[in-house]
Amino acid sequence: MTKQRKQYSAQEKVRILREHLIEKAPISDICDRHGLQASVLYRWQKQFFENGAAAFESRHAGNARERKMSARIEALQSKLTEKNNVIAEIMESHVALKKTLGEI
Length: 104
Fold this sequence. Notes:
Elements: H1 10-21, H2 27-34, H3 38-50, H4 59-101
Helix pairs in contact: 1-3
């Protein structure tokens, strides 16, 4: 029987890295406590430092992106409503035609 791997959230990974980087806990102690391989911890550390610039990026860029996505969602929702209205009209005329032909 194989052992299931634990999936760590981003917050858990940062908390574990914090133990080593800020609290100066030895990697061997951290790995023993959390059941990790040292290579996993080093990989997390590398990813953390490579992606660290994202933490300092302007929040305005994210807000602009959110506004753009929100506008797109609204446009798609209005298209969907229009499509539903057209389908309802077509179905209404279809039912009326069937009634005039005596099929209903």
